[in-house]
Amino acid sequence: MALIVQKYGGTSVGTLERIQAVADRVIRCKEAGDDIVVVLSAMSGETNRLLGLAQEIDENASEREKDVLVSTGEQVTIALLSIALQKKGCDAISMTGDQIRMHTDNAHGKARITDIDDHNIHAHLKDNKVVVIAGFQGRSPDNYITTLGRGGSDTTAVAIAAALKADECQIYTDVDGVYTTDPRVEPKARRLESITFEEMLEMASLGAKVLQIRAVEFAGKYNVPLRVLSSFTEGNGTLISYEGNKMESPVISGIAFNRDEASLTILGVPDKPSVAASILAPIGDANIDVDMIIQNSMGDNTADFTFTVHRNDYKRAKELLEETSSKLGAREVQGKDSLAKISIVGVGMMNHPGVAKTMFETLGDEGINMQLISTSEIKVSVVVDEKYLELAVRALHSAYNLEQ
Amino acid sequence: MALIVQKYGGTSVGTLERIQAVADRVIRCKEAGDDIVVVLSAMSGETNRLLGLAQEIDENASEREKDVLVSTGEQVTIALLSIALQKKGCDAISMTGDQIRMHTDNAHGKARITDIDDHNIHAHLKDNKVVVIAGFQGRSPDNYITTLGRGGSDTTAVAIAAALKADECQIYTDVDGVYTTDPRVEPKARRLESITFEEMLEMASLGAKVLQIRAVEFAGKYNVPLRVLSSFTEGNGTLISYEGNKMESPVISGIAFNRDEASLTILGVPDKPSVAASILAPIGDANIDVDMIIQNSMGDNTADFTFTVHRNDYKRAKELLEETSSKLGAREVQGKDSLAKISIVGVGMMNHPGVAKTMFETLGDEGINMQLISTSEIKVSVVVDEKYLELAVRALHSAYNLEQ
Predict the structure, then answer these.
(1) Does the pLDDT of residue A309 top 90, yes or no?
(2) pLDDT at position A133, please?
(3) Domain identity same for A11 and A142
(4) Residue B245: its pLDDT value, please?
(5) Same domain, B261 and B168
(6) How would residue A332 be classed by pLDDT, with cut points 50, 70 and 90?
(7) Residue B352: is its pLDDT beyond 80?
(8) pLDDT band at residue B348, thresholds of 50, 70 and 90?
(9) pLDDT at B207 > cutoff 70
């Protein structure tokens, strides 16, 4: 008998019919002999509908009150699923974030979990109940309602699985697992049976948006085996754990990519240690996320400094950089706003030198110019003109034999 | 400086525009120097929408889960009003039933308030905040969400006003006060400046559905001055208190009525003390509410026994009564299902004999036959054929000079 935490996302509980289907699936697992804890999101669209109401009144509505507002979405679905389970003869009980004592800090709208009191959940499991928990929400030290931010339901599920020492945390979504790359770009993309936490983190942060990165970090930290699978079809999904699948042992597990990149370069800045901070501080102060950062010393006591941002932030970042350029007496500011980043990811590359070489050769053969390159232990990322994105992904998928 | 509890019903917060209008009204009162606590219902229609979802899954959905579900309705409106108040520069904070420690018993769907911890509310008032509280909801001893049943928001407001020793509890609704009778039946009906708790209880229970009877009882018990007024128009509404308005001092304050009455009579039952219980026990066991009860001894050791029920319960009650009739060896069961009850209500009648005589004469002059009569200290009720309802109400309104 195992203890399984199952999380169902918004599309999985988007209609009453789908809620009934979730109930059927939960009951099948329960009847197979496992203890089941369910974590739910709001019905798809509901969180946005509620936030829309708040924004109609005030675009800068208080985060505390928005948390009170949007946390109702999950409260509705936990009640409806509990009713559906009971109707089908399965004993179930709903629990809000407050009721399971999901303690968080005070950061409304993006609260961090500090502690879970698993006492209540264990008591209900002992009574042979399915416990249906509202994702995304917690309570602050002031006993106010908090939310964990978008995708917080995944984090809730992992945190509960960690607190309960569950055997597995299953994330049900509308895709049936993690793929070698986006099947919309490369139809030959293949579902992975398993992947490591580290690879998943690189895949997720690079745009393969199956799982919230925070949930993966959390699962890795507490070593909770995580499984991504579809609530609409049968199948084993993809298991995310520390081991990965040794039998499979590929050099590269997948190819992630990000559209909507933009790069900014400041040429001829003084080549001294403080210059990176001088350049990036105004960007950070404007809440603009910087992704890749590259600095080249030119040998004449000046350096060229390049970084990438989301395309939406390009215009503002360029303005800020031009101000910095005047202050530093730099030569010029350049920028490009139609770029894409492509990354090959795999723990196998740690033991296989020459992995990057295959990438560069493949892109070179296709006549694709790499504008920036950045490497880490388990990934190599390149930035290319966005128009080459699909061509590059398909060429790399084939070069690394990801279709098997 | 007074402490005022204001309760706004579902139509008053039915749209974002109306929520903004409520915010404006709250701010006007706050700026006049009063401390304001607001109690809100869900947006009109929302509670029914949510219950509809539960019923689509299970017509007999658990009361506990229905409470989790429907309590979200008020949680949405308190957040939205708080956001609207803040946007307009008024410091405000929303509080759920759980957060103000609205303790209730375990009777999900119809919970009774046991205690309120006013500590939190007082603390926020001291900080010069408007406190916006979710009506209708509380928390059980198990820390589960409870609801007080339909109209529970009125009760919440009165309970909070009592706990805070507020100077007045204002119930904002879509009518501008309590009328001498229903203006749809008698266009000359007049708004009352004031009315006593006892009169209001008689009016409310008889169908003048402005206020929940439970809230009036509660207000009377804790001597909380209650004011009914419109959230759509200006005006003083109607004050409900122990004093009433001595200056006005009318014999009759108003005329209440109930359609949809039915009467049942069992003829020739043994005239002994236990017979009423024998007749009514099966009716009560079937959850049928009995209103008027009349027993006439016939002098031959038998009695005739008549009672009224809601028309919807007529058929079932008649079946039960026929079973009882066989058991008791009664002569016959009779019934009528198209009746209406009309009542004149007023504390003044305690000191004015002859009030009932005017009623009987007036109805007699109009050729209206009274099928049942029942009296209490402050009201006289008669049951007539429903087709005479409007005629009777108008004739009595005029006979008692209620239009002034």
Answers:
(1) yes
(2) 98
(3) yes
(4) 53
(5) no
(6) very high
(7) no
(8) confident
(9) no
Is residue B204 one of the residues assigned to a domain?
A: no
Beta-sheet strands, E only, within B298-377: 302-310, 332-345, 372-375
Together in a domain, B22 and B164: yes
Cα angle value A81/A168/A78 (rounded, 5°): 15
Give the residue numbers spanning the domain of A300: 255-399
Report the Cα B357 to chain-centroid distance in Å.
29
Is the pLDDT confidence value at B38 over 90?
A: yes
Mutation to test the B interface, candidates A40, A43, A69, A95, most B Cβ within 10 Å? A69
Q: How far is B210 from chain A (nearest CA, A)?
A: 29
Residue B294 lies in a domain: yes
* Nearest CA distance, A118 vs chain B (angstrom): 15
**Residue B205 pLDDT class (50, 70, 90 cuts):** low
Q: Distance between CA atoms of A52 and A68, rounded to whole angstroms? A: 14
Shared-domain flag, residues B287 and B376: yes
Domain boundary among B156, B174, B192: B174
Is the pLDDT at A248 greater than 80? The verdict is no
Task: Quote the pLDDT of residue A273.
Answer: 78
Same domain flag for B161 and B259? no
Give the sheet arrangement for strand B372-375, strand by strand.
B290-297, B302-310, B254-270, B332-345, B379-385, B372-375
Q: What is the pLDDT of residues B57-106, one digit of tens each?
A: 999 999 999 999 999 999 999 999 999 999 999 999 999 999 999 999 99
Shared domain for B21 and B169, answered yes or no, is yes
Where among A144, A174, A204 does a domain terminate? A174
Count of residues making up chain A: 404
**Helical (H) or strand (E) element with B291:** strand B290-297
Q: A82 in contact with B at a CB cutoff of 8 Å?
A: yes
Q: Give the residue from chain A lying closest to B82, CA to CA.
A: A65
In what side-by-side order are the strands of the sheet with A145-147? A113-116, A102-104, A137-139, A145-147
pLDDT of residue B291: 87
B129 and B263 co-located in one domain: no
Total number of domains in chain A: 2
Neighbours of A249 (CB within 10 A): 11
DSSP B38-68: EEE-PPTTHHHHHHHHHHHH-TT--HHHHHH
Enumerate residues 6+ apart whose C-beta is below 8 A from A395.
A362, A363, A365, A366
Closest residue in chain B to residue A58, using alpha carbons only: B87
Query: Is B153 among the domain residues?
Result: yes
CATH of the domain at B356: 3.30.2130.10
pLDDT band at A367 (very low <50, low <70, confident <90, very high): very high
Same domain, B283 and B162: no
Contact B82 A99 (CB under 8 A): no
Residues of chain B positioned with their CB less than 8 A from the CB of A87: 57-58, 61
Reported ipTM = 0.78
Mean pLDDT score across all residues of chain B: 91
Nearest to A62 among B64, B86, B144 (CB): B86
**Is there a contact between A62 and B83 if contact means CB atoms under 8 Å apart?**
yes
The reply to whether A115 sits in an annotated binding site is no
* φ/ψ of residue B310, rounded to 5: -65, 145
The CATH number for A88's domain is 3.40.1160.10
Tens-digit pLDDT profile for residues B236-289: 999 999 875 555 556 888 999 988 999 999 999 988 878 888 899 999 899 898
A220 is a domain residue: no
Helix (H) or strand (E) holding B125: helix B119-126
- Is B47 labeled as ligand-binding? yes
CB contact under 8 A, B69 and A79: yes
